[in-house]
Recover the amino acids of this structure.
């Protein structure tokens, strides 16, 4: 669940919300579509149509028959911007509380799991939303609409639930406190905004979270969670007429509130001088950030601001990257703009290694950013930025699921049609527009800097108010809607009936599944295998560096040219490699598929290994590794993995600590990386899976030509693992100044995925620690005891080796470590001694099986599945048999399998956190 603003929120810069203004006169309903009473049709743009109920609820229907799934997303136009004094974090806390149930839907997490959904909720400055993606059936859709209508006005919001959930949210707050970069962003934003609530973290203050009265939370819920403050989106495969009727039946019976919707009126005054904030806390990487006030996301200036942020922050073309990363003044650099309902911020940031000068990095960051006002951008700069932004826009719209959720953010800015209006405005941005906004807003007096050293300056920059969105979109019609796909039932039988398999020289298993998709989208996954146990000894570092160089230049293209070509092909394309495989993933369209495959093949076959890029890669790797050294999750995971997998240090399966990897990367050489590539890379053993809208005959030829003659220098033999009965490890590792601790547990199991007990273990683990907040562990540790924001288990078994792994992970406050361990051990014991109830098993089967269906309806996941099955020598008939077996399991079979595999006394677990501080605080007379 989205919680707070940090440096990690670059991809969320478009998030915002507001009350949608009155729309233009509604168009007539589509011919043949009879609207239920109380429902009217409003705007329609590019395949998305808006309707409204008389109680004020707005509905967006986005049909997409190409996916056997449906997404229901409801957005309430309330977020942290609407919180009053002492109410910080209330909107986010309420997001958690509405999962606690209603009189009709008493166990919402259980229902979400039973219906095989992919659900979540999120809170941002101006909105809160909840969504579920599920297999496209009338039953599932009826249930989802009934659930959202019911919890809109009938959620418990009870004191007993607040008592347990408050500690969960507080743990979520503590997780954020583990990131110095994230906290620095919060501190700088709170300085940039003196009065506006955008300066407050969405997750709120610890004191408000701990002290919020239940009656205040209930009043907040009753005020904002009403139909006249909500937007309902239904996207995917569904019957429009039937869906409108069901919406009228479920939401239409909710009366329109008599209270007027409260309005916020605070405007941030123009900043009248430089501001600074200093943060000092434990960490292994330095950071600097500079923030500038910019107009609202709906303002005519914002598209140029958006382009400007790309020109500054892109990798590797961005001005900040070239000035800071390529010169080794910083390990990373970025820039983005918050696109919000009301005036937001343009943010430029950089991470700086501990042995580099933060003063120098700060000066360069500010100089390069503010130089944009006097150093003109080029048409090439603008075109590159525009292509990238429009590509991302098209990628979103090609997926009805992604679009359904993203529509919330645009509606939150004033109207969902801004999504298309912003696209149109981007197309018209010229270099002089970017120059103008840089001059208007990138001024020293409009700057807030966050770092360890203060700065001074004093001037003023005026930022315009948000425009009248209703006037902007009054007569907006949009462009041509994307092509629709076919109705495709993603069962193993249907998939196998459509799938084609051929072998392409020099040894590639090519798996092709052609089908019509929305926007003619295609997904591709490539995996090539190399090496064996003897030849890979001591070469893991060289392998990682070689794989990291694949996208940094070829004999035909520079790194920047590769990036530009990817954008030109409207593709999401990544090529990478490790110790035993090299890989490529592609998402593009039918017309660009051949070009994208050829480009991926070029990067795999013809990397140029430029020396300058190798040094940049080294710096980036070191920065990431140094940042991980103090992370409790990394500490716990590394310790547990080392214990469960005690391979010699030279072995390619050896588990390195961040400290070991840092030393290895520091001494690695370009020649070692080149030698690894020369010794191992080739296509003699590999799998390529393609799913989507394409011509199979054409792609066979393209793949054959692209990889012809690419033979592996050495034969491949898979690295096998052998089951070892490891003794139980129980240890704690200190992670100073980290407010959230981490629990990791693991047990090796002598089992392969063709064992008779494997299906029972899969379903047993699903009920133990899977699902959505309704497993045994989640119910006890999160929902009842309120000890953890996130807890769950997993079970993995190989198709090749009898060496499976059962694992558990949780995050918690360090002072709750003993309680968490006790709860974990008690719940595992209950599973092994009592098993599961008939209702639990029936609901788990239903949810697990539907979840598999949803997974196969996602082409990106289906590509991975088809490629994996090819490597295993299987088809999806194996999946069909597994699902059939699981559907017929009994409690006795499940319990017997788990008792045979899981021995509590042999489970290893590692905890990492600031336990010394807990002991110090608990000592009588110790300073607090």
């Amino acid at each position: 669940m989205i919680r707070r603003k940090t440096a990690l929120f670059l991809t969320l810069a478009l998030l915002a919300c507001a009350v949608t203004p009155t729309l233009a006169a509604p168009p007539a309903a589509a011919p043949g579509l009879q609207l239920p009473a109380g429902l009217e049709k409003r705007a329609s743009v590019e395949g998305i149509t808006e309707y409204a109920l008389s109680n004020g609820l707005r509905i967006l229907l986005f049909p997409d028959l190409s996916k056997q799934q449906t997404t229901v997303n409801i957005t309430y136009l309330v977020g942290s911007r609407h919180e009053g004094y002492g109410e910080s974090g209330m909107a986010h806390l309420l997001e958690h509380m509405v999962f606690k149930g209603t009189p009709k839907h008493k166990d919402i997490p259980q229902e979400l799991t039973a219906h095989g959904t992919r659900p979540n909720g999120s809170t941002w400055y101006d909105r809160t939303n909840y969504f579920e993606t599920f297999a496209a059936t009338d039953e599932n859709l009826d249930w989802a609409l009934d659930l959202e209508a019911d919890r809109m006005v009938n959620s418990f919001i009870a004191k007993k639930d607040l008592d347990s959930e408050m500690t969960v949210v507080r743990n979520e707050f503590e997780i954020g406190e583990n990131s110095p970069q994230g906290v620095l962003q919060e501190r700088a934003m709170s300085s940039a905004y003196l009065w506006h609530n955008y300066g407050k973290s969405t997750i709120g203050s610890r004191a408000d979270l701990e002290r919020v009265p239940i009656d205040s939370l209930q009043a907040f819920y009753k005020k904002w969670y009403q139909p006249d403050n909500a937007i309902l989106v239904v996207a995917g495969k569904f019957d429009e007429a039937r869906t409108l009727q069901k919406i009228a039946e479920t939401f239409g019976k909710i009366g329109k509130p008599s209270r007027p919707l409260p309005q916020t009126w605070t405007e941030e005054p123009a900043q009248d001088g430089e501001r600074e904030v200093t943060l000092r806390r434990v960490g292994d990487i330095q950071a600097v950030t500079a923030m500038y006030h910019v107009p609202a996301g709906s303002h005519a200036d914002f598209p140029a601001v958006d382009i400007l942020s790309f020109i500054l922050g892109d990798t590797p073309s961005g001005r900040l990257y070239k000035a800071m990363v390529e010169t080794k003044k910083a390990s990373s650099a970025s820039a983005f703009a918050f696109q919000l309902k009301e005036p937001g911020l343009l943010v430029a940031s950089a991470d700086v290694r501990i042995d580099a000068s933060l003063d120098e990095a700060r000066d360069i960051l500010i100089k390069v950013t503010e130089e944009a006002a006097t150093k003109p951008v080029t048409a090439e700069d603008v075109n590159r930025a525009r292509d990238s932004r429009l590509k991302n826009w098209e990628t979103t719209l090609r997926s009805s699921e992604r679009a359904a959720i993203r529509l919330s953010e645009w509606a939150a800015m004033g109207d969902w049609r801004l999504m298309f209006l912003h696209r149109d405005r981007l197309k018209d941005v010229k270099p002089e527009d970017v120059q103008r906004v840089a001059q208007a807003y990138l001024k020293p007096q409009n700057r807030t800097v966050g770092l360890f050293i203060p700065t001074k300056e004093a001037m003023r920059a005026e930022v315009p108010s948000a425009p009248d969105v209703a006037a902007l979109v009054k007569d907006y019609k949009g462009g041509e809607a994307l092509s629709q796909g076919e109705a495709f039932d993603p069962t193993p039988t249907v998939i196998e009936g459509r799938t084609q398999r051929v072998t392409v020289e020099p040894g590639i298993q090519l798996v092709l599944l052609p089908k019509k998709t929305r926007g003619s989208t295609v997904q591709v996954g490539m995996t090539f295998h190399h090496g064996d146990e003897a030849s890979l000894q001591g070469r893991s570092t060289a392998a990682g560096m070689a794989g990291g160089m694949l996208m940094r230049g070829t004999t035909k293209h520079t790194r920047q040219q590769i990036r530009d070509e990817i954008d030109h092909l409207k593709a999401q394309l990544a090529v990478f490699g490790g110790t035993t495989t090299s890989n490529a993933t592609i998402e593009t369209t039918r017309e660009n598929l051949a070009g994208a495959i050829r480009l991926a093949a070029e990067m795999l076959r013809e990397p140029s290994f430029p020396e300058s890029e190798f040094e940049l890669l080294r710096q980036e790797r070191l920065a990431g590794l140094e940042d991980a050294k103090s992370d409790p999750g990394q500490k716990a995971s590394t310790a547990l993995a080392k214990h469960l997998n005690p391979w010699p240090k030279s072995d390619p399966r050896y588990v390195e600590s961040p400290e070991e990897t840092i030393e290895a990367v520091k001494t690695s050489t370009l020649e070692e990386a080149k030698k690894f590539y020369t010794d191992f890379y080739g296509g003699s053993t590999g799998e390529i899976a393609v799913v989507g809208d394409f011509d199979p005959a054409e792609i066979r030829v393209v793949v054959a030509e692209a990889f012809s003659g690419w033979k592996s220098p050495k034969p491949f033999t898979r690295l096998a693992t052998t089951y070892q009965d490891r003794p139980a490890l129980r240890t704690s590792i200190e992670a100073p100044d980290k407010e959230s601790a981490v629990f990791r547990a693991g047990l090796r199991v002598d089992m392969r995925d063709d064992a008779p007990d494997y299906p029972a273990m899969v379903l047993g683990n699903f009920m133990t620690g899977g699902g959505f907040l309704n497993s045994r562990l989640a119910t006890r540790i999160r929902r009842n005891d309120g000890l953890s924001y996130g807890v769950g288990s997993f079970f993995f078994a190989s198709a090749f080796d009898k060496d499976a792994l059962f694992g558990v992970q949780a995050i918690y406050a360090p002072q709750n470590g003993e309680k968490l361990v006790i709860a974990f051990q008690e719940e595992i014991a209950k599973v092994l001694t009592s098993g599961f109830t008939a209702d639990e098993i029936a609901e788990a089967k239903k949810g697990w099986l539907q979840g598999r269906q949803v997974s196969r309806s996602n082409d990106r996941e289906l590509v991975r599945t088809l490629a994996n099955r090819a490597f295993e020598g299987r088809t999806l008939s194996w999946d069909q048999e597994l699902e059939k077996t699981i559907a017929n399991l009994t409690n006795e079979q499940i319990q017997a399998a788990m008792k045979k595999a899981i021995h509590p006394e042999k489970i290893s677990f590692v905890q990492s956190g600031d336990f010394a501080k807990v002991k110090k605080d608990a000592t009588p007379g110790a300073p607090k």
Q: What stands out?
A: Confidence is low (pLDDT under 50) at residues 1-29, 453-460. Residues 390 and 423 are 7 Å apart (CA to CA).
